[in-house]
Amino acid sequence: MRILITNDDGINAPGLEVLDQIATELAGPDGEVWTVAPAFEQSGVGHCISYAHPTMIARLAPRRYAAEGSPADCVLAAVGELMREGLPDLVLSGVNRGNNAGENAMYSGTIGGAMEAALQGLPAIALSQYLGPETAGLDDPFEAARSHGARVIRQLLDHGDWTSDEDFRLFYNVNFPPLPAAGVRGLKVAPQGQRRGSRFGVVPYTAPNGRQFMWIAGGSQQAPAREGSDVAVNLDGYVSVTPMRADLTCHASLDGLARALEGPGAEISAEKTPAADGSTR
Predict the structure, then answer these.
(1) DSSP state, 182?
(2) Where is the Survival protein SurE-like phosphatase/nucleotidase domain (predicted)?
(3) What is the largest distance, in Å, between two alpha-carbon atoms of the chain?
C-alpha cells in the first residue's frame, strides 16, 4: 500500500511521528509512506489553499517533503507533482494535537487536508487526539492514537464507504478520547456535534508601541454537546468516527424552501445525504 501523510501542526510535530508509525504498520514491508507536510504550523486554516501566491516545496529525505503552505496545499503538491507517477492508495491527515470534534471540525487544517484528498478522488481519513486532564501527565499524550490508530483505520478500510461515484466522495474524521490507551472503551460512529456555550473568541492586546492586536482563543473543550455526538462519545471514553463530505448543503431544508420561494409544487430532486443513523437529511 502507498500512503500519503500530512498534518496541520507542521513537519516536526510529534503527532506526525505518531502517524508515520501508524502508516508504516499499515503499508507493510512492501509498501511506501510519503510525507508532505507544512513547513510551519497551519492550525486553524481549514481547507485554505495558497491560490494567490506560489508555495515552496523542500525535499528533506526520500519521500519526505515540507511545503510552505496549508495541508490542502500539501495534498495538491503530492497529487499534482511529487506522487504523480503513482498516486497514494490512502491519505492520512494528523495526528492532530487536540481534538477536531464538534465545531472544531469547521476550522481544522487536519480535516482540510483529508477533504482535499477526497475532492481529488482519494480515500482519506483525518485523525486527532483529544487532550484533557487525563492526558496531561502522560509521557506520550498521543498514547491512545498510537495504540489504537492502525486498528481503527483497518476497520474503516474494510467497512467504510469508499465508492467514488458520488458528487462528493466521503472521507472520515476520527477523534481519539482524552485518555490513556488502556482507558479507551471502544469505538462509536457519531455525527458531528457542537459544544454548548463554548465559542471561539478574541483576546485583545495592546503592544508597547500602542498598536492594537488580538489573539484568537478557543472555548472549553470539556463543554458538553448533544448526546451521541462526536464530542459526547469522546468525553465518554470512545473513539469517534464521523463520515463527512465536502457538501455544506442542508438537504432537509431544500424542498420546504423551494416551495416557499418558488411556489406550490416546487420540489428539489437532489439526492438526500445519508445521516449517521441511516436516515436522510
Answers:
(1) G
(2) 3-196
(3) 64
Is the residue at 228 inside a domain?
yes
Does 260 lie in the same domain as 123? Answer: no
| Same domain assignment for residues 269 and 136 | no
CATH of the domain at 14: 3.40.1210.10
DSSP state of 278: S
- 161 and 117 within one domain: yes
* Predicted TM-score (pTM) above 0.90: yes
What total number of domains does the chain contain? Answer: 2
pLDDT tens by residue, the chain, 281 residues: 999 999 999 999 999 999 999 999 999 999 999 999 999 999 999 999 999 999 999 999 999 999 999 999 999 999 999 999 999 999 999 999 999 999 999 999 999 999 999 999 999 999 999 999 999 999 999 999 999 999 999 999 999 999 877 789 999 999 999 999 999 999 999 999 999 988 889 999 999 999 999 999 988 998 999 999 999 999 999 999 999 999 999 999 999 999 999 987 777 765 544 454 444 44
Residue 217 lies in a domain: no
Is there a domain that residue 36 lies in? Answer: yes
Ramachandran angles phi, psi of 245, nearest 5°: -150, 160
For residue 248, give Cα distances in angstroms to 108, 111, 213: 15, 14, 32
Dig out the grid coordinates for 281 from the structure.
437529511
Binding-site residue set for a divalent metal cation? 8-9, 43, 96
- Determine the structural domain holding residue 268 and report its residue range: 250-281
